[in-house]
Amino acid sequence: MGRILLRSMAIVLVTSFIGCNQSIESKNLSIQADGSEPSYQNLMPVPASIELQEGKFYLDDSFQVAVEGNPDKRLYRAIGRTIKRLSGRTGLFLPQVFFNPDEKPSDPNMHVYVEKAAHIQFGMEEAYQLKISDSGISLKAETDVGAIRGLETFLQLLDADTSGYFLPALTIDDAPRFPWRGLLMDACRHFMPVDVIKRNLDGMAAVKLNVLHWHLTEDQGFRVESKTYPKLHELGSDGFYYTHEQIREVVAYAADRGIRVIPEFDLPGHATSWLVAYPELASAPGPYTIERKWGIMQPTFNPAIEETYTFLDAFFKEMTALFPDEYVHIGGDENKGVHWDSNDQIQAFKKRMGFSDNGDLQNYFNQRLLTSLKSYGKKMIGWDEILHEDMPKDIVLQSWRGREAMITAAQRGYRSLLSNGYYIDLHQPTDYHYLNDPLPADSPLNEKEQSLILGGEATMWAEFVTPEIVDSRIWPRTAAIAERFWSDRSVQDLDDMYRRMKITSFRLEELGLTHERNYPMMLRRLTGNRDIVPLKTLVDVLESVKVYSRNRQRVHYSYTPLTRVIDAARPDAEVARLFRQNVDRFLNQGGSDPSLASEINQHLISWSGNHAKLSTIIDASPILHEIRPMSEALSAVADLGLESMELIQSRGEVGVSWIEQSTGILEKAGKPVAQTELAILSAIEALVKYLK
Ligand code: ACM
């Protein structure tokens, strides 16, 4: 819980964003052939420059790709996957799925030119140019990773008309705004099998993310095999860990998609699972058992004994050989030093070393880890707590407690990433994350300091996700965050973002992501395989309580099932968002537009009658009993909405008792039920308020 409480500090309001005309970069975005309407097509992220032209390239069975330049086999595999996805979408019998460097197509329609294969590392070149005309396609890039980014753009451009599948004629010149665009996946709170990681790597590549930050050790589980210290995974994982072979498989899979893999070994706190096996390295006497609750826990490595450093050095020796990326994440977050304060030997050590506080002591610990990592040729990244004046400038800080930490780091000459504002585990709406720019127009940083901001990472902490629902918390919102990291700052149109995100979401399904398809499956389970329509009508407008409220309302454990209504409900409920939008538009236009009124009323009528239909299903399905008050609330507020709509349209008057009664209904419906909230409530409130 403590961890959960502290993490709520990570939420700050986005205070500013800018309109296109204030952008410092001027980019050639979205000019149509006739110079009219801007259009980003269905692209997400929006490229740096698009020029639309007249014409279409129609795809048929003769489609063939030729490769030129000096790539290695990675590019051939990427083109093979692209052709497979194209054939899957179109039903065309495209012959090049097993794309082979030795086969030279006789009459290619697409030419891919790449100068060289990239090293998969920080700062790798990712730019590309894609040209499509009615007679052919060319994709050019310095590196194969650039071409891999361009292939995703190419796939996003596929469209159809009565003549068949086509791509619009255009020229795209594209490159990322930030070099570090990541997704953190926590495989500890709930273990995420290799297939889950792989399908999410595919999703990341589709939206041009380039770092998988793999959170591998926690109080609740030690998730990587250690051959040096096998007791770590044997005693600390409940049997759920990645073998070396699996790690190599994931790293290779990611590299094939131009994605770096950065392991996080969270130290010195968040360490219970290590200390289950090695209690002698702890700051307080053991024994320890794997933690089953959520929150900030106290078990911490003892920084005052040499055995800790000998142990971690040997551990890093093994792990740095397993993970090829230059960076290793040492965590460093949320060590409150409670066990340090209660250990006399640690207190004596602190005094002897002249440390004034636990910050100094933790910095000593971090410096020792840094020495080890450097000896294995690695660089260090850690959460913003590791910032200390004694740290060398080549570390990277990941700012999570507030964007202030990122700013301070840059002002002191450190490179950093922003994760504050991208905590996708907190069920916040997409637009909140989307408008959270690492470098807004009013950033206090000067140009040199701005160049130290490397990008950002979305964080998928896993207290409340299992393999069954994790995709629905990552996608599609992370596609919008990926756009924030890739595209120009001026790309900020929320309606267009939501439009493109919906298309992207559906296309992510072809990669095996389960965010759409598991929803009806979960509803079927909840109803005991009865008709899911009434339950879907309700859950479509429910969202989880936000930020860290869930664990406060009801304590959860690592074994608590995540199969309830709250777990089926999706963040940023689309039906509710569109309804709110319609109500806003209706009221802004004076409450008289008949077609908007009819659309609003249709929803309200369906919700009004929904409880009568859902009630018998709830009766028959005990897992749904907890949601009954919410089902009643939906119908009650819908009735209130219908009444309000009628009064607004007939310009009726309302009296004090009507207002009192309405306020009572709204207040009752505003209380979370089974840790869910009614996402249409603000729209009904707006209707009622209009009448007051
Ligand atoms: C964190 O969320 N404790 C980095």
Give the key terms.
692 residues, alpha/beta, Chitobiase, domain 2, TIM Barrel, 3 domains, eight-stranded parallel barrel, seven-stranded mixed beta sheet, 27 helices, 15% strand, disordered N terminus, binds acetamide
Number of strands: 19
Category from helices, strands and their pairing: alpha/beta
Q: Whole-number radius of gyration?
A: 27 Å
- CATH homologous superfamily assignment of the largest domain: Glycosidases
* Major sheet: 8 strands, parallel, barrel
- The coarse silhouette is globular
Provide the CATH top-level class of the largest domain: Alpha Beta
Polypeptide structure, described:
With 692 residues, this protein is α/β, with parallel strands linked by helices. It has 3 domains: 13-174, Chitobiase, domain 2; 180-494, Alpha-Beta Barrel (TIM Barrel), CATH 3.20.20.80; 518-691, no CATH class. It is 41% helix and 15% strand. The strands form 4 sheets. It has an 8-stranded parallel β-barrel, surrounded by 5 helices. Strands 1, 2, 3, 4, 5, 6 and 7 form a 7-stranded mixed β-sheet that branches. Strands 10-11 form a two-stranded antiparallel sheet. Strand 6 (159-161) and strand 7 (164-174) form a beta hairpin. Helix 4 (194-206) packs parallel to helix 6 and helix 24 packs antiparallel against helix 25 (628-649). The longest helix is centred in the last third of the chain and has 22 residues, at 628-649. The radius of gyration is 27 Å and the shape is globular. The chain starts with a helix and ends with a helix. Residues 1-33 have low confidence and may be disordered. Bound molecules: acetamide. Acetamide is lined by residues 7, 333-334, 383, 400.
